[in-house]
């Protein structure tokens, strides 16, 4: 069992308050006093517990859905009414979301809560503890979590309010995106000197200098889109601070898949080399925040006939003790990136005919109507077939309600991603797989892209050499001899599938207005989301984003 120091402590510390970055909706209280803690570095980690608890809230569910289902990476259509969920998944796919979409509301509230929780902790600790190196490091970590939350808000909503004061209930309108960018940049730069340079179990899941540089690199790579000013050379410099540390490496081809397994973490093969900043998950952990705070990937990604099933209805391939929903899949447009048969990353997908571990066919027994309710309507004769996951999504029951139908043909549409491999040790739908936010391979590809976009090469590295450094650890196919921005984009798709960055990439590459699946909307205002309904209820001074 992995040790998760931050979250074990956080379970004791979480206050359960509901906060917003614009206004506190429930007055927060704390038992922190000068006599209790923090008195040393370990105590500051404990004090930061509620912040990290809040951070892991929506990452593996609502946040991922908003980032993936608005792109060609993922889709969650209904099956016989199941998973329609008020049309929120339909809206994500068609780019027709409104300010009432549940994902948009939930994620604004989640990120606002993180920001408010940081503001609270900084306010309390400022009053209870003297200035010094210990407090400076503690504050730097807290403010980096806030910077990440603000980055996610800026990336998704554009202009957002800036609020760093706990107890200030003044309503405030949004700040321009460029101003938010500058605020985040200044916060990161101010934090870096006080952050740890240690990479170990003790700092895993916490912001170090390298996590800070990774966030800076991500900002600079997208700066031209955010602010109109290119910062590709600055992106390269941020990447170089991580590369030159020699504390991270690209995990070997043999260990790539294991990096995302349930027992990944600071001591695990694969993840220990690559994870710069990750969010730990523990299937036994609970908290009092109003978020899932759980990794539910298997629930959505594993076909329902490959989890716990009734006798004859399938085969529990992953030995997981619960019934999966299996509504989520990719689209053919995204899967087309996985066209190298020698690439280890192909194995993160379930595609086509399925077999048991012993090589025999994975068969499902149902009725003919249960197999295909359209072709065999009313036919209750038994029917056995080999599970076949097909690439295309077909709305054969209803285009209006985004519905494929409620039979085996419908439920087995779409290739499934199992990068966050199902956790057979968990008695619930929660998993122990930690989720990386920044990986070393992202640093390598960001630097390669920044060079191609005009940044100054450094350390004797070129865009081509950097890309080949990664590819030699992922495929046995020959190294590239040429490189383009599009080839880097395709490589990012292969490397970071299901990690929540694809929307960010598509926008930077000008591909978010494209067509895929059933989506034809090319409106550029959809690059940012509307300010959600619940935000206006808390802060009436907000103004809606253009196009909504």
From TrEMBL:
Cell location: Cell outer membrane
SusD-like N-terminal domain mapped to chain residues: 88-221
Domain RagB/SusD: 373-548
Coiled-coil spans in chain: none
Gene3D superfamilies attached to this UniProt entry: 1.25.40.390, SusD-like (1.10.3780.10), Tetratricopeptide repeat domain (1.25.40.10)
Membrane is among the record's keywords: yes
Family classification: Belongs to the SusD family.
Signal peptide: 1-19
Listed GO CC annotations: cell outer membrane
Entry keyword annotation includes Membrane: yes
Protein name in UniProt: Carbohydrate-binding protein SusD
SUPFAM superfamilies per record: TPR-like
Assigned keywords, A-Z: Cell outer membrane, Membrane, Signal
Domain of life assignment: Bacteria
Pfam family, one: SusD_RagB
């Amino acid at each position: 069992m992995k040790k998760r120091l931050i979250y074990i402590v956080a379970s004791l510390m979480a206050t359960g308050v509901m906060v917003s970055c614009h206004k506190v909706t429930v007055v927060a209280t704390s038992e922190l006093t000068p006599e209790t803690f923090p008195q040393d570095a370990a105590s500051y980690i404990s004090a930061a517990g509620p912040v990290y608890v809040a951070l892991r809230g929506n990452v593996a569910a609502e946040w991922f859905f908003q980032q993936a289902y608005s792109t060609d990476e993922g889709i969650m259509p209904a099956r016989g009414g199941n998973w329609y969920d008020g049309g929120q998944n339909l809206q994500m796919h068609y780019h027709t979301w409104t300010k009432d979409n549940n994902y948009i509301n939930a994620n604004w509230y989640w990120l606002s809560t993180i920001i408010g929780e940081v503001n609270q902790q900084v306010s309390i600790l400022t009053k209870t503890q003297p200035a010094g190196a210990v407090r400076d490091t503690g504050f730097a970590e807290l403010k980096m979590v806030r910077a990440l939350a603000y980055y996610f808000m800026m990336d998704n909503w554009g202009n957002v309010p800036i609020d760093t004061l706990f107890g200030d209930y003044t309503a405030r309108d949004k700040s321009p995106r460029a101003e938010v960018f500058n605020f985040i940049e200044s916060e990161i730069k101010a934090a870096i000197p006080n952050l740890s340079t240690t990479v170990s179990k003790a700092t895993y899941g916490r912001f170090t200098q390298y996590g800070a540089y990774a966030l800076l690199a991500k900002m600079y790579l997208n700066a031209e889109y955010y602010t109109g000013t290119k910062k590709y050379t600055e992106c390269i410099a941020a990447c170089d601070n991580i590369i030159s540390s020699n504390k991270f490496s690209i995990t070997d081809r043999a260990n790539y898949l294991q990096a995302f397994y349930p027992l990944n973490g600071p001591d695990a093969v694969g993840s220990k080399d690559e994870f710069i900043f990750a969010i730990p998950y523990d299937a036994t952990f609970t908290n009092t925040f109003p978020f899932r705070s759980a990794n539910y990937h298997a629930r959505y990604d594993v076909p329902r006939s490959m989890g716990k099933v009734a006798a004859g209805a399938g085969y529990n391939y992953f030995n997981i003790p619960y019934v999966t929903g299996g509504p989520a899949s990719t689209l053919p447009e995204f899967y087309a990136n996985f066209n190298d048969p020698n690439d280890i990353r192909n194995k993160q997908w379930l595609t086509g005919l399925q077999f048991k571990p012993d090589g025999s066919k994975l068969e499902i027994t149902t009725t003919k109507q249960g197999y295909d309710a359209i072709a065999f309507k009313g036919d209750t004769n038994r029917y056995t077939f080999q599970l076949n996951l097909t690439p295309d999504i077909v709305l054969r029951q209803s285009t209006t309600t985004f519905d494929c139908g409620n039979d085996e043909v419908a439920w087995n549409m779409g290739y499934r991603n199992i990068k966050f491999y199902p956790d057979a040790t968990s008695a619930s739908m929660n998993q122990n797989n930690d989720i990386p936010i920044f990986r070393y391979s992202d640093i390598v590809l960001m630097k390669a892209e920044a060079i191609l976009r005009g940044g100054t090469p450094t350390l004797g590295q070129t865009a081509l050499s950097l890309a080949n450094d990664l590819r030699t650890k992922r495929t046995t196919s020959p190294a590239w001899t040429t490189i383009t921005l599009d080839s880097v984009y395709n490589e990012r798709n292969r490397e970071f599938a299901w990690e929540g960055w694809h929307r960010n990439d598509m926008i930077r590459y000008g591909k978010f207005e494209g067509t895929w699946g059933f989506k034809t909307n090319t409106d550029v205002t959809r690059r940012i989301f509307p300010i959600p309904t619940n935000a206006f209820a808390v802060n009436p001074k907000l103004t809606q984003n253009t196009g909504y």
